[in-house]
Specification:
single chain; alpha/beta; two-stranded antiparallel sheet; 6 helices; flat
Length: 222
């Protein structure tokens, strides 16, 4: 691996993992160059059906990687449980199971980095909601949230936005965004998760649930 021009090597560590060897290299170098943004600040609403919905209507798909690998993981778990503890076959099954989990994590990380880099290259700034992810992980949505990697997505987007000098606004946690009309500001009843489109009781506008929430989040930053 060639280091960037002018980079100073700091630390190199090598570790063995279930799928092979992992090499970590730390070095000091000039910050990455990002493209000049072509779009203004955008609001982002995190969700389960889409990883993120933008205030301009665009949506970032939920990769659902753990769900796709669930059948294979269940099969390997049953196979591991049938093996005698300490046996060679059990160790091989455990290693295969570890490789599957590692593959899911690597694919999720790759998806997040590609999506966040495209966002930072496109928009001048981001308005996001202050979510209590720890609290949400104690609900029945925990599995879907973990599969989506929403917390990782927001964390990576934030530090890349800081590196690129993009604006960053956080919508207050206890200030509603869902069910609030972005056109007239009317606050309606709380919407169950099954309701994906709704009509404002104030002005009659019909909204996509997630796009409207993203527009409200953006409105708090402008």
């Amino acid at each position: 691996m060639a280091l960037p021009d002018g980079a100073a090597l700091k630390v190199v560590s090598v570790t063995q993992e279930p799928r092979g060897w992992h090499v970590s290299i730390q070095f000091e170098a000039a910050p990455k160059l990002y493209a000049t943004p072509t779009q203004p600040m955008v609001g982002i609403d995190g969700g389960l059906l889409a990883l993120a919905t933008l205030s301009d209507g665009a949506k970032i798909a939920h990769p659902r990687l753990a769900r796709r690998a669930a059948k294979r993981i269940r099969r390997l778990n049953r196979e591991r449980d049938r093996r005698r503890k300490g046996s060679v076959n059990r160790k091989r099954t455990v290693a295969r199971l570890g490789r599957v989990h590692r593959g899911v994590a690597d694919a999720r990380r790759d998806h997040v980095h590609k999506a966040t880099r495209e966002l930072v290259d496109t928009y001048e700034g981001f308005a996001v909601e202050d979510l209590s992810l720890r609290g949400l992980m104690r609900t029945r949505m925990a599995g879907s949230l973990a599969d989506a990697g929403l917390g990782t997505f927001l964390r990576v987007l934030k530090y890349k936005a800081e590196w690129a000098g993009r604006a960053w606004h956080v919508h207050p946690r206890f200030q509603r965004s869902t069910g609030v009309c972005p056109d007239c500001g009317h606050t309606g009843h709380k919407l169950p998760l099954s309701v994906r489109r709704w009509a404002c009781d104030g002005c009659g506008s019909v909204h996509d649930r997630d796009v409207a929430a993203a527009r409200v989040i953006l409105g708090g930053a402008t």
